[in-house]
Amino acid sequence: MQAGRCPTDELSLTNCAVVSEKDLQSGQHVTVKTTPNHKYVFTVKTHHTVAPGSIAFSLPQRKWAGLSIGQEVEVSNYNFDKSKQCIGAMTIEIDFLQKKNTDSSPYDSDKMAAEFIQQFNNQAFSVTQQLVFSFCDKLFGLVVKDIEAMDASILKGDPASGKKPQKVPDLFKELKHQN
């Protein structure tokens, strides 16, 4: 597929790669191989303006994955192993996206975390990933610093195994919000 520019500002805030509905379905996860040794996992959304055979990325996504407009990339389906690849905890570095729009207002980090989970539920994340987050009408630049896997026994309704959360920086993770 050919890398392109994200078609709308709204889609740039989703942290998803954008494809034609003729190629993939919204919500699928894909591996994007940029070079023989570099691959990245993205969750996709579809949009009618993206040409078949193209995959569009936001500026932070292109920067993180080292992608150029028009670059040919290899795209394949990616399926998460829910027993090992659900996020239990994630450490994120946050800053104002545009330094000229900084302010000293306090932000409720609990509300910010809840909004993050709501906006990015069921999405792929990787350590070092860069993305944009909209909160309280402000744009923030985020960098994923650390991810810990969730104890999968919790998903089955079993008591927690008591194992220490596993830090797995080399595996891709999917954010799952448990109600």
UniProtKB/TrEMBL annotation:
Primary localization: cytoplasm
Catalytic reaction annotation: ATP + H2O = ADP + phosphate + H(+)
Ranges that cross the membrane: none
Cofactor note (record): Binds 1 Mg(2+) ion per subunit.
Record-stated family: Belongs to the AAA ATPase family.
EC number: 3.6.4.6
Assigned keywords, A-Z: ATP-binding, Cytoplasm, ER-Golgi transport, Hydrolase, Magnesium, Metal-binding, Nucleotide-binding, Protein transport, Transport
Class in the EC hierarchy, top level: hydrolase
Domain CDC48 N-terminal subdomain: residue ranges: 1-80
Residue ranges of every copy of the CDC48 domain listed in the record: 106-168
Cofactor section: Mg(2+)
Full protein name: Vesicle-fusing ATPase
Cited InterPro entries: Asp_de-COase-like_dom_sf, Cdc48_dom2, CDC48_domain_2-like_sf, CDC4_N-term_subdom, Vesicle-fus_ATPase
Function (record text): Required for vesicle-mediated transport. Catalyzes the fusion of transport vesicles within the Golgi cisternae. Is also required for transport from the endoplasmic reticulum to the Golgi stack. Seems to function as a fusion protein required for the delivery of cargo proteins to all compartments of the Golgi stack independent of vesicle origin.
Subunit structure of this chain's protein: Homohexamer. Interacts with GABARAP and GABARAPL2. Interacts with GRIA2. Interacts with PLK2, leading to disrupt the interaction with GRIA2. Interacts with MUSK; may regulate MUSK endocytosis and activity. Interacts with CDK16.
Subcellular location: Cytoplasm
